[in-house]
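Regression test case RT-17, inverse folding.

Input:
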């Protein structure tokens, strides 16, 4: 019960941040699981199992509040599924930490760029739909590998390129539901075929996954309303700041300065 309540609070906080900023549920949840000694593939599979429920609720909220740019949604979702399936297959067979330094560097650079844009009061612009293909593939791959990376990669890229934060966050969160289902299905396939050798550890983390689902479902319905009400410039600063904080913290972890 203590494990369930702990992860209920983690899921509640992470989803509240994710719904408002378009990122952080996977990153926060995975970081907690990894800190408790859960293997990377098991942590990613656990988080994505929880996200099947939370991203569905969050997507519904964003659709209801008209935060989705449908012109960008379809190519983004399709590209994300391709990258996510490939990433889940790779992670089930190798150690995912190899790519982590590159993800951290990316987060830091994009965070600085977004803060620069916010400080110079640049205006939103119309993004070309073809841009969603490479961004979606990379974001889906990193999300599967790291247990969380779709939001930081794709939301930051769209906001950094000039997309209105509200529309970027709503579109990314809605597409994430389909990405999460695809990644979860890939992990199940890897489990059934025997490709995933460490899959037996999943049964030891049922309480954690249940807590993440419960906490996420409590916060997810408010995602669309939060991002709709918060001013554009505030959201832009918040996205950039969160990226920098996450990259600095994970960099300190890699360096062994913090646990």
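Golden output:
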């Amino acid at each position: 019960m203590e494990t369930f309540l702990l992860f209920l609070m983690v899921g509640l906080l992470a989803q509240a941040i994710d719904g408002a900023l378009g990122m952080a549920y996977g990153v926060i949840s995975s970081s907690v699981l990894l800190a408790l000694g859960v293997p990377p593939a098991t942590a990613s599979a656990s988080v994505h199992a929880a996200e099947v429920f939370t991203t569905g609720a969050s997507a519904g909220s964003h659709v209801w509040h008209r935060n989705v740019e449908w012109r960008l949604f379809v190519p983004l979702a399709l590209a994300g599924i391709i990258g996510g399936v490939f990433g889940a297959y790779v992670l089930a067979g190798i150690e995912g930490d190899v790519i982590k330094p590159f993800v951290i560097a990316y987060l830091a650079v994009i965070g600085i760029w977004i803060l620069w844009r916010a400080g110079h009061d640049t205006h939103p612009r119309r993004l070309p739909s073809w841009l969603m293909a490479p961004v979606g593939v990379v974001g889906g791959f990193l999300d599967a590998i790291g247990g969380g990376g779709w939001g930081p990669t794709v939301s930051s890229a769209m906001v950094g390129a000039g997309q209105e934060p509200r529309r970027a966050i709503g579109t990314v969160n809605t597409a994430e539901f389909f990405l999460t289902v695809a990644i979860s299905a890939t992990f199940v396939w890897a489990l059934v075929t025997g490709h995933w050798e460490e899959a037996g550890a999943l049964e030891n983390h049922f309480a954690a996954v249940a807590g993440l689902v419960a906490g996420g479902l409590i916060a997810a319905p408010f995602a669309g309303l939060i991002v709709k009400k918060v001013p554009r410039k505030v959201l832009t600063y918040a996205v950039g700041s969160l990226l920098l904080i996450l990259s600095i913290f994970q960099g300190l972890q890699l360096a062994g300065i913090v646990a």
